[in-house]
UniProtKB/TrEMBL annotation, chains A, B:
<dbReference type="GO" id="GO:0046559">
    <property type="term" value="F:alpha-glucuronidase activity"/>
</dbReference>
<dbReference type="InterPro" id="IPR037054">
    <property type="entry name" value="A-glucoronidase_C_sf"/>
</dbReference>
<feature type="active site" description="Proton acceptor">
    <location>
        <position position="395"/>
    </location>
</feature>
<keyword id="KW-0378">Hydrolase</keyword>
<keyword id="KW-0858">Xylan degradation</keyword>
<keyword id="KW-0119">Carbohydrate metabolism</keyword>
<feature type="domain" description="Glycosyl hydrolase family 67 catalytic">
    <location>
        <begin position="136"/>
        <end position="477"/>
    </location>
</feature>
<dbReference type="InterPro" id="IPR011099">
    <property type="entry name" value="Glyco_hydro_67_C"/>
</dbReference>
<feature type="domain" description="Glycosyl hydrolase family 67 C-terminal">
    <location>
        <begin position="478"/>
        <end position="700"/>
    </location>
</feature>
<protein>
    <recommendedName>
        <fullName>Xylan alpha-1,2-glucuronidase</fullName>
        <ecNumber>3.2.1.131</ecNumber>
    </recommendedName>
</protein>
<dbReference type="Pfam" id="PF03648">
    <property type="entry name" value="Glyco_hydro_67N"/>
</dbReference>
<dbReference type="GO" id="GO:0005576">
    <property type="term" value="C:extracellular region"/>
</dbReference>
<dbReference type="GO" id="GO:0033939">
    <property type="term" value="F:xylan alpha-1,2-glucuronosidase activity"/>
</dbReference>
<dbReference type="InterPro" id="IPR017853">
    <property type="entry name" value="GH"/>
</dbReference>
<comment type="similarity">
    <text>Belongs to the glycosyl hydrolase 67 family.</text>
</comment>
<dbReference type="GO" id="GO:0045493">
    <property type="term" value="P:xylan catabolic process"/>
</dbReference>
<comment type="subunit">
    <text>Homodimer.</text>
</comment>
Amino acid sequence: MKRLIFCLLLLSNLAHADDGYRLWLKYDLIKDVAKREEYARSCQFIAVSNQSPILKSAADELQMGLQGLLGKSIPIVASAGSRTGGVLLTVSKDASADPQQLTQEGYRITSRTTINIASKSDKGILYGVFALLRQVQMGQPIANLSLNSNPKIRYRLLNHWDNTNGTIERGYAGESLWKWYELPATVDPRYRDYARANASIGINGTVVNNVNASARFLTAEYLEKVAALANVFRAYGIRVYLSVYFPAPKTIGGLKTADPLDPEVRKWWADKTNEIYKLIPDFGGFLVKANSEGEPGPQDYGRTHADGANMLAEALTPYDGIVMWRAFVYKADPKADRFKAAHEEFTPLDGKFDKKVIIQVKNGPIDFQPREPFSPLFGNMPKTPLSMEFQITQEYTGFATHWVYEAPIFKECLESDTYIKGKVEASPEPTLGKFVVRGKDLPVDPSTVARVIDGSLHGYKMTAIAGVANTGSDRNWTGNPMAQANWYAYGRLAWDHTLSSEAIANEWIKMTLTSEPKAVKTIANLMLKSREIYVDYNTPIGLSRPWSGVHFAPEPWQEKSARPDWTAIYYHRADSIGLGFDRTATGSNALAQYRPEVQKQWNNPETCPLPYLLWFHHVPWTKKLSSGRTLWDELCTRFYTGADSVRWMQQQWAQVKPAIDPEIFADVTGRLATQHKEAIWWRDSWILYLQTYSKQPIPAPFPKPERTLEDVKRLSEIYKLR
Amino acid sequence: MKRLIFCLLLLSNLAHADDGYRLWLKYDLIKDVAKREEYARSCQFIAVSNQSPILKSAADELQMGLQGLLGKSIPIVASAGSRTGGVLLTVSKDASADPQQLTQEGYRITSRTTINIASKSDKGILYGVFALLRQVQMGQPIANLSLNSNPKIRYRLLNHWDNTNGTIERGYAGESLWKWYELPATVDPRYRDYARANASIGINGTVVNNVNASARFLTAEYLEKVAALANVFRAYGIRVYLSVYFPAPKTIGGLKTADPLDPEVRKWWADKTNEIYKLIPDFGGFLVKANSEGEPGPQDYGRTHADGANMLAEALTPYDGIVMWRAFVYKADPKADRFKAAHEEFTPLDGKFDKKVIIQVKNGPIDFQPREPFSPLFGNMPKTPLSMEFQITQEYTGFATHWVYEAPIFKECLESDTYIKGKVEASPEPTLGKFVVRGKDLPVDPSTVARVIDGSLHGYKMTAIAGVANTGSDRNWTGNPMAQANWYAYGRLAWDHTLSSEAIANEWIKMTLTSEPKAVKTIANLMLKSREIYVDYNTPIGLSRPWSGVHFAPEPWQEKSARPDWTAIYYHRADSIGLGFDRTATGSNALAQYRPEVQKQWNNPETCPLPYLLWFHHVPWTKKLSSGRTLWDELCTRFYTGADSVRWMQQQWAQVKPAIDPEIFADVTGRLATQHKEAIWWRDSWILYLQTYSKQPIPAPFPKPERTLEDVKRLSEIYKLR
């Protein structure tokens, strides 16, 4: 990125086009001269006494960033001496000796005659440097700063579903960033830029390979390659983790079994772990998908998830590494409700996991749908740390074509109240946003999913969050330039889940696209509405999973698959009477996995909020909903207004043209055109198909689709051709 | 202060870092001021009267190139008027009204008071512009120029084995350049740079999809996407072609058959072709892999390759498009010799193909091995135009890791004498490299493969050449920066196969890497030796195909596969007696497919050149070869000196460091380190395996491998793990 900045400076007479490579770390010259000089007066030097790799990264980044933003070169010195007007980077164990305590990775920025970035750790300094740069990038004042910031979650990870052959499962932005055939000898300079981008938003770990894991990664040959990545990431405070293939002791160890209770198997994992730590002393640990979607696991030997996870934890005992065991499990049982599977398998194991194990739970009970209720596991394993798995890559939200800002998806789940500690009654006059304590039995704060994840609800010592990455080898990292915001938002929320979707959007826009106020407002509005628009034309009122095999083409009519729970009809349950999955007591009773207060919200079809309605109820076509429309009319209204809202997005985007780099503008304009075409395709597919059950006309004022059900079916078939 | 200086030095280094994106079209400022000013005096303006898209591309390229090279902006004017000292771009039908006739795409550059680039076509002007820029890039004089150049082959194509999902079959430089999900609305600016690079070396067509073709490309939805690419390429004289899936009339047409003699099928193809030409008026035509490696074809209906090809030709009759039908066929018969298959299937069809059909033949009879004898089809289908298929991507030559300059591979085939018109006796005193005519019955020139391909031998009207592309989404296009030279060399040879490997290497190095004379010489020497070095450690003395499934890991012991001709032992035939495939009369007699003069070269194991020996003979281990060593000792010598030569390559490369961009230097240094490691792996795999048959010791002075056969087998197994 350093290189690119200079190339751009040198070639500034040739073009202003932006290929998106620099993400939100643009560091372009601030145009307002007065402001620039004001910043420059406070940033005349960077003082750092120590030369650890992470501190060097921090000082270099600050130097490079300020050089770009202020247009002058800022010296790095070992000591400020008696000089003022510079930036001090100070690691100090005493940084916590005051009321607002810093945790290990937290930072404090104070400024008077000098700007002091203080932390108990080198990593905290690095995060503080990015925070200071963010202030400058956003044009905020840096005089009289007093910023304190601690991460709310300890392990903040990206999960890469990347394969040895360079493909990415559910990747839509090119190939894997990791070039396994070239490593370890050839180290792509891009790895460093990847680390910088992650460090800038507080991400401190990365699982480099797919959860559908290849055993290759545990061979000596591949561990060397992984170590070469770790060597780059280390200077940015990022630890490397590996997804492991559970039967590896058989496939590469030559053992006859992978039974987690077999002593030879346990020894194999212990030896392998020792081998890894010799190469990568700060190795983070293992992520495991076992007995899930055909992946082998401990149940193949009559053992439990706990047996499997605890075996790996034992191997990690000598080291500072953890086991992240995924709860994404379900059986191919046509009579069962997949919604209930993870809760059924995992809650009986609560308390049986080693203290190095954390259970990684997807936000919803199914699989990263555009809208899902929160997983009923959250709150229901009080003796076991649970971590959150969000999906940043847009597997079910339009690949790299559709513009869906995901912070509202993440926030919706994090802010959901599990009611694990009962109902919190807000004070009629809330002070400072806090809740009033009514008595010993009443909790102070609601039992949100966020408080499960950040450990505060059950007092977990270990807290973690994972985002399935949307990065790839595309020059702009994420395919759709607007999807960079999802990577950014995930990182910012992993650090502090109380940030608002809007605040994060504003940060990202100003650093990445433009600081022109009207354009910032227009784009932020687009971002904040984008997810609801997508849901409306794609899966409104609680619909889910109407996709064909690649999760791209609409196929609500799909009724055959290798497994019943991989068909579309399994989920929407359309019939002559109505639509939706009855998960009340008359149906699968999945609702019983939630607390009574939650059940009360969703149990009654009359009062269940429309966004969740078809998740829990089979609703007759002519049933009048709370909107005043029948189900059928409400569906049509959503599909039509949703698709039409993409036109509104196009119009809004057209207005910001003068404020946006022309290459980025053209790119997004093209994607919105495709999104509009596909939104209408989605709308037509659903409506034409559901109409065969509802037998209802399309209500005024909406026109009939211009094609038949056969037409849209044919369109979907294209995506099944080799 | 020291630190500050260091940082500034670091930054100034980074300012020059080169990510390889610009390929050989760098246009960096010429450092020699006198030279720059000399050029500038001749290039004060660009005059072009017409504004066709291709002429606009030509003028824009010249302007951009000269601006970069000379550091000043050059105006484009409609007419030079009476001014001199500029560059005139002149399309003129009269450009051929002189002795050295120009063909349609040829160009002439003359310079006195002005530089005149003349051609009969806009495309010729574009090629002339790149030729002029090349002169300047290489520091050659441009005063008193008199360059005439005509392409020797009419259709000069890249073949992309790219799939709809973004993967590339045998691609080692990232994903496909074509972003199918985004097209047609989003048009990556990179498509234009792809077209520029190709036009600069004279490539005038591109087959955008894999020969193992998806029927998707013939759907209305995908044709729109292909048309969007064609719209970009057209301004650079590049036509788009499609690989077609032969049963498409069934899979997407809904017909019950794809029988090429069925009237409905013929109508379907005619209609589809009309549909294509409506969208892409300059569409180039179809490439077909049929009845080959499991792909369906006309033989499924009892028809011949000619029936299939002629049906497509009929559909193309109203248009200026062609059918390229591949001769890459072989049956899974353990008793047959795959070497003979294409000749056996295709020579009986000579003269039976429509005039729009050209048969595309791989350079060798097997499959793009590091060294193969030329295909016996060349010269043996005098009534049918044959085109050449070279592989640029390094499927069998070390992926993107090993440095193999391929011009010598291409040249070796092109210069092979088929002796179709008998033996040419060179004059004892050759004049100007020409051969003396001894009498009416003796040909003027040898019947080289090149003269089959360029049409001069049999008077083909249609001539074509295809290179399987090594491009991908990697920033530097080809993964290994040195592999850019293979794309370049292919294009240059497609234009003029008489260019020498060395001349092309020099051009490429000077335009791409450095003009420092000693470095140019060192790198050219490395390039010219690289292929022989690879052959020595990989497949010496005529060995072939010792690869595991992905064609990466050595697996000479592989004896099981879905087909017998997909095992390694099928090819090398090692046993207790010796090694090699007997293709003489005592064996498969494949040699009989060649002319007697060729047979004479290769038929006798005593005189057969060592590079081809094991292609044609099963040689006893202890047999003394022309080198004076036994077969076993010669093999060991090749494997050891080959692997050791990679160390020499590393040392040579280290010497050019001061002359090379640091990022490129580091990248290649890393790849060479891996290449060396893998060369030893190859050596050890072959030697340890063959030793189980030869029972011979490794001759002095070579040390025994440091590992066992089991060790290297285990290493290969890694590449078969998921």
